[in-house]
């Protein structure tokens, strides 16, 4: 394991939430500085994590002629080639993984679009009152 946290993730999230509630645009470096004192690091584990991240990134760049990903990682660290797989269980794993991400992104997209609409409406009201 790359890191050892001295407090629970729940407590750390509360500390971060308290800080970001005071600003409209939190900065990643500020969040890192909040987290830093609570972690101890192991150099070898960090190297391994970086190599895993690089491997994941490279595998995510393999795409077909239509620029759609070919390989997807399952929960056991095995890549599934969706163009060649005949294993329905593997394809179902990828389908569930992508469906979950799609749902999350759809919700986030709707939230952003609703916020854009509200900001535009507010701006239009202010402009029409002038």
Explain this structure.
This protein is mainly α and 130 residues long. The chain has four helices and four strands; from the N terminus they run βααβαββα. The protein has helices at residues 9-20, 28-35, 43-60, 88-129, and strands spanning 3-5, 39-41, 71-73, 79-81. The mean pLDDT is 91. The N and C termini lie far apart (60 Å). The strands form two sheets. Strands 1-2 form a two-stranded antiparallel ribbon.
Features:
single chain, 130 residues, mainly alpha, two-stranded antiparallel sheet, two-stranded antiparallel ribbon, 4 helices, 4 strands, 62% helix, 9% strand
List the helices and strands and how they pair.
Blueprint: E1 3-5, H1 9-20, H2 28-35, E2 39-41, H3 43-60, E3 71-73, E4 79-81, H4 88-129
Antiparallel strand pairs: 1-2, 3-4
Main β-sheet, spatial strand arrangement: 1-2
Span between termini: 60 Å
Helical content stands at 55-70%
- In angstroms, what is the radius of gyration? 21 Å
Mean pLDDT score = 91
Low-confidence stretches: none
Q: Report the portion of residues in β strands.
A: 5-15%
Question: Major beta sheet, specifics?
Answer: 2 strands, antiparallel
Shape: flat
- Count of DSSP H/I helices: 4
User: In total, how many beta strands?
Assistant: 4
Structural class, judged by helices and strands? Answer: mainly alpha
Secondary-structure element string: EHHEHEEH
């Amino acid at each position: 394991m790359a890191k050892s946290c001295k407090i629970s993730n729940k407590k750390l999230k509360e500390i971060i939430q308290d800080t970001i509630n005071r600003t409209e645009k939190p900065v990643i470096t500020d969040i890192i500085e909040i987290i830093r004192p609570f972690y101890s690091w192991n150099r070898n584990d960090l190297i391994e994590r970086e190599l895993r991240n690089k491997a994941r990134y490279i595998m995510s760049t393999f795409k077909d002629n239509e620029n759609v990903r070919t390989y997807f990682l399952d929960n056991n660290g095995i890549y599934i080639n969706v163009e060649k797989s005949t294993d329905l269980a593997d394809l179902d794993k990828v389908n569930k993984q992508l469906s979950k991400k799609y749902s999350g992104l759809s919700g986030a997209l709707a939230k952003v679009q609703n916020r854009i609409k509200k900001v535009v409406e507010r701006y239009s009201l202010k402009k029409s009152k002038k």
